[in-house]
Amino acid sequence: MKSKRLLKFYFAADSLNRALDNLITQNALASADGFLSGEFYAERILELVCAKKELNALWRHLDGVISGFSESEKKVLRYYGTMRGGTAKLPAETVREIKRVTVKFKRRLRNIERFAEGIRLVYGFYTLF
Asked: What span, in angstroms and rounded, lies between the C-alpha atoms of 18 and 52?
């Protein structure tokens, strides 16, 4: 499990939710065209709704963990989660603070294995956010 991906998911969940809503709408509109059976589109919509449910459960768990952090620590987590690259080019003090807060974050992620399906979906939808 990569904590950076979980953090990016947590802080970009709104954009992922919009993307999933758009996919649901596209499938609903495509079913009206009649190219494929309505059952095909209904199954796809159901899969997307189930994915949203799993991701919502994961997000709520992460929110419970992150709500225990101070505002400055939340800023560090947001910064690290939304970084495109690694920490190699950052100053040593910044790297130390990122490492300290992310280790604290990882230690607080108890029972994360309950959300294995949500984590799998985060990895699958990673390019959408």
From this structure: 11
From residue 63, give the alpha-carbon distance in Å to each of 49, 60, 67, 114. 21, 5, 6, 15
Q: Which two tokens stand for residue 51?
A: 């994915």
Residue 60, token pair as written in the block? 């709520």
Question: d(Cα 128, Cα 20) in Å, to the nearest integer?
Answer: 9
CA atoms 85, 86, 87, 89: torsion sign: negative
pLDDT computed for residue 31 by the predictor = 72
- For the cut 80, the answer to whether the pLDDT of residue 128 exceeds it is no
For position 125, what pLDDT does the model report?
82
pLDDT of residue 43: 93
Quote the CA–CA distance of 115 and 62 in Å, as a whole number: 10
**Predicted pLDDT of residue 1:** 59
Q: Is 119 exposed, middle or buried (0-12, 13-18, 19+ CB in 10 A)?
A: buried
- Residue 117 one-letter amino acid: E
